[in-house]
């Protein structure tokens, strides 16, 4: 595949991933964005800024370089592009990133609460709590805000593996999720929303709810992600 075909394919995948977010009910109006990276070509494909999903097409996906300069496309890239770039640069294993303001994840983000692991649906995907960042400082808000949002995520993930923790809440804002591909990033946004919904109702039904037994958490995470994983079919 030549360079032109590779980038065309990347734009198509990013378009489809963005549409998935909307089809899964995680998006209102123009909120949210998905990107993907081609590390060999040092190019990121991302949703254009402020374009409704009904008007989106593979051709409207914007290509930017690592300095956030548009290299292909007539539209401005998502205003959150610098957050995406910051995460791609911090974590070489990332292939795709998704950002939404989905309802339940935003509720936890607005409450500035990390999500405790209450059950096996959560444990199937994350080995522990889903972190929430600290507040941005006044300097960060006044400065390069979107880049600083990325820095705040990196700061919170310190000591954690972005391969194991593929989702985070940005305080007072909403979730960012990622994965080796844009499709996995979107999948994680869908899963996160479900985890946030069930965790909220769990806390409401029993405010004294405690986290899942450590043994059960490990069992569920390891059977899907451990070295002896046995969930699903061998690939
Ligand atoms: Zn946002």
Kindly describe this structure.
The chain has 235 residues and is of the alpha+beta class. It has one domain: Class II aldolase/adducin N-terminal domain (L-fuculose-1-phosphate Aldolase). Helices cover 41% and strands 13% of the residues. The chain has a seven-stranded antiparallel sheet with strand order 4-3-2-1-5-7-6, with helices on both faces. It is globular, with a radius of gyration of 18 Å. The model has no long low-confidence stretch (mean pLDDT 94). Zinc ion binds at residues 99, 101, 173-174. Residues 99, 101, 173-174 line the site of zinc ion.
Write a concise keyword list for the protein shown above:
binds zinc ion; 13% strand; 235 residues; L-fuculose-1-phosphate Aldolase; seven-stranded antiparallel β-sheet; 41% helix; alpha+beta; 7 strands
Write the layout of secondary structure elements.
Layout: H1 3-23, E1 33-38, E2 43-46, E3 62-64, E4 70-72, H2 81-90, E5 96-99, H3 103-110, H4 120-123, H5 138-142, H6 145-156, E6 167-170, E7 174-179, H7 182-205, H8 214-225
Helix pairs in contact: 1-7, 2-6, 3-7
The structure holds zinc ion.
The site of zinc ion has 4 residues, from loops.
